[in-house]
Amino acid sequence: TFKHNLTAVLNGAELPYSNGCLEGFNRKIKQIERTAFGYSSFTNLLTRIRLEENLYKEKEPNSLLMVA
């Protein structure tokens, strides 16, 4: 299989690109799945992942309420 994937191996060694960030994110998701045993729905699991990664954005204050 090394000969079959030789170009991919050489590209991985020569190019400055890395998938380390993506692999780390996948690892976090798998860990959350392990610790989240018993969630009642997939939506709850997605919510937990978003909370762990701070993907929820805080709502901006209503500009109409901020007028003095």
TrEMBL record:
Transposase IS204/IS1001/IS1096/IS1165 DDE domain segment(s): 1-49
Residues spanning the signal sequence: none
UniProt-listed InterPro entries: Transpos_ISL3 (IPR047951), Transposase_DDE (IPR002560)
Protein name in the entry: ISL3 family transposase
